[in-house]
Specification:
Blueprint (H helix, E strand, L loop, with lengths): L10 H6 L8 H8 L12 E3 L3 E4 L2 H12 L4 H15 L9 E7 L5 E6 L36 H12 L4 H14 L1 E2 L2 H17 L20 E2 L2 H13 L2 H4 L1 H14 L5 H6 L3 E3 L2 E5 L2 E5 L6 H12 L4 H4 L4 H21 L10 H4 L2 H8 L26 E9 L5 E10 L54 E5 L2 E6 L7 H13 L5 H6 L3 E2 L7 E4 L5 H9 L4 E4 L6 E5 L5 E5 L6 E4 L1
This protein binds 6-diazenyl-5-OXO-L-norleucine (DON).
6-diazenyl-5-OXO-L-norleucine (DON) binds next to strand 10 and strand 11.
């Protein structure tokens, strides 16, 4: 397994690399008074043996039942994934893809890449007009936005290698849920209502079950029944991989591609493979960090940021003080600049992972941070484009620990909320719009404002770069934290904040996920601030030090499990969504 040592240099040395004098201890005391107190959140969910934290109460319930019936964490992951495909239409999926990271009870770790791929008929400039300009909307919605789905292949591969219960037993709860229906939460009802116009636009002649029968708005508590999806899930239950990639489901999917002008073919479906990959490993303080390798950018970026931050005494710098925010933001800014240039599908080109995780390299990058807590303009790091703010978007994450100590961290996605908005007629499932995660034109920002170049350009069969960052921390050889979240480009910085919350600030799991967050992604040169993340006086201080603050709507859904020193499982379910921690 790849192992990268994190460097440990004293703060003084780091600051000595700066052009100016460091923040002094007197000013540090002043800084401390500018910090936001961590949230006095509701107590975390506690469990003795096993726990599931996911984005929907039905999925957490189903996953916990599988564990109680003797299933392991991998069985529960399969059942939760299919349950989310029913209960969480915005993000749960069989028409998308994702990454799963595990750490087995005997200490081995691995990861499964079931990211979508570009169809064979895709090409580098497929979203550009004759003048070479990006055609707005083409990569973000409708049939051309769809990558070859990977989720079902991923779940089949996971079950085959690691599962204990029978495949049908893991699918049946989702089949039952889709058949019987379930009450819509207020958030899902609002999401479906907001998307109705797009559902109608992208599904002409086929009114999907996601549109309220008889018109009008869904109300919280209305029952959503998904009979076509139930039949598709039944085929997957009975035929495994072939229930999705061949036969009736494939026929319905290809019909829609043909009707609407999409690119996914039977050859794409047949050739799709989920891939087991070596996870990345690093160390942060006295924790070992196991995280996702490319084609996610998340693990590389996370380890780079942790390398840059390790020499800094963040606890001493204070919680959400201008000084702590400075160190974290400057690390983020530098790492996202690298992401844009270097990262892409490692099966299609060299991703310089060794170099990016090299101690000296990151030491040099951190050494360019300015002193006195001042911002380095992003334009001084690497030139880039200006970006839009986030659009509504959805992905979903779940964290599971079973009674044996196996741990699963899994993030899956349709990309945008309800993906491409295309629902396969007769099969009832939403298709992803993951193609937008490619760099559709060098330097042009995608829906998350991320830019890229050739490393992430479109090619047949290639996986689009992701930010999904399923991550597991161990301490003295035992699992200590299972973490991950949706949120597009913000995923990496939210996962970072969850680690800092546990390791540096001693917060409990529920405080970690509840705490208002901050985010910087190099370009645009803005520090996104959730309401309540910074005191007004801290905001003024940061502005005076050169930071451009951007008040932003809440983002991400961190679902984490922290294992207390006595082995008690402490679940944190993000209050921004319908996320739920359950255990026994
Ligand atoms: O793979 C990625 O990085 C994106 N497709 C994830 C999208 C996402 O997290 C949207 N969620 N809120």
């Amino acid at each position: 397994m790849m192992k990268y040592r994190l460097f440990t240099i004293p703060l003084a040395l780091l600051l000595a690399c700066s052009a100016e004098r460091p923040v002094t201890s007197t000013s540090r005391a002043f800084e401390g008074s500018l910090g936001t107190p961590p949230p006095k959140a509701a107590a975390p969910k506690l469990a003795r043996y096993a726990m599931v934290v996911s984005a929907h109460p039905e999925a957490s319930r189903i996953g916990t039942q599988i564990l109680q019936r003797g299933g392991n964490a991998y069985d529960a992951a399969v059942a939760v994934q299919f349950a989310l495909a029913v209960a969480l239409p915005a993000a749960g999926n069989i028409g998308g893809g994702g990454f799963l990271l595990y750490r087995d009870r005997n200490g081995s770790a691995g990861s499964l890449d079931f990211r979508e791929t570009a169809p064979a008929a895709a090409s580098r400039d497929m979203y550009l007009d004759k003048q070479g300009n990006v055609v707005p909307g083409l990569s973000t919605a409708g049939p051309l936005a769809v990558g070859t789905p990977g989720t079902v292949a991923g779940m089949v591969a996971l079950h085959k290698l690691m599962g204990k219960l029978s495949w049908p037993a893991l699918l049946q709860p989702a089949v039952a849920l889709a058949t019987r229906g379930f009450p819509l939460t207020a958030k899902e009802a609002a999401g479906l209502n907001k998307t109705r116009v797009d559902f109608e636009k992208y599904n002409p002649g086929n009114v999907p079950a996601y549109v309220r029968p008889g018109g009008g708005d869904w109300q919280p508590g209305d029952t959503l029944r998904l009979p076509e999806l139930a039949r598709t899930l039944t085929r997957i239950r009975d035929q495994g991989r072939a229930g999705f990639y061949r036969g009736e489901t494939a026929r319905l999917l290809l019909n829609e591609m043909k009707r609407a002008g999409g690119l996914v073919s039977q050859a794409d479906l047949d050739s799709y493979r989920a891939k087991w990959r070596e996870p990345l490993r690093g160390r942060y303080r006295d924790y070992d960090v196991i995280t996702m390798a490319p084609p996610s950018s998340g693990g590389v970026a996370l380890l780079q940021m942790l390398q840059m931050l390790e020499p800094v005494d963040l606890a001493q710098a204070g919680y959400h003080t201008p000084l702590a925010v400075h160190y974290i933001t400057e690390a983020e800014r530098r790492v996202y600049a690298d992401r844009a240039t270097y990262l892409g599908d490692p099966d299609f080109g060299l991703v310089p992972i060794q170099k990016l995780l090299d101690v000296d390299y990151n030491r040099q990058r951190a050494g360019t941070m300015r002193s006195r807590g001042r911002a380095t303009p992003s334009s001084d790091i690497v030139a880039g484009a200006n970006l839009p703010s986030y659009e509504s978007n959805e992905t979903t994450h779940f964290s599971i620990i079973d009674a044996l100590g196996n741990a699963v961290s899994c993030t899956t996605t349709l990309n945008g909320g309800y993906g491409s908005k295309v629902v396969v007629p007769g099969a009832g499932f939403l298709l992803n719009n993951e193609m937008d995660d490619f760099s559709v034109k060098a330097g042009t920002p995608n829906a998350y404002g991320l830019t890229g170049g050739t490393a992430n350009s479109i090619a047949p069969g290639k996986r689009m770069l992701s930010s999904m960052t399923p991550t597991i921390l161990t301490h003295n050889g035992k699992v200590a934290l299972v973490t991950g979240t949706p949120g597009g480009s913000t995923i990496i910085t939210s996962v970072l904040q969850s680690i800092l919350g546990i390791v540096d600030y001693g917060l409990n799991a529920q405080q970690v996920v509840t705490a208002p967050r901050l985010h910087h992604q190099w370009m645009p040169d803005l520090l996104d601030v959730e309401a309540g993340a910074l005191l007004p006086v801290a905001q003024d201080t940061l502005r005076a030090r050169g930071y451009q603050l951007n008040p932003a709507l809440p983002w991400g859904r961190l679902d984490i499990i922290h294992v207390q020193p006595d082995g008690t499982l402490e679940g944190g379910a993000d209050p921004r969504g319908d996320d739920t921690a359950l255990g026994y």
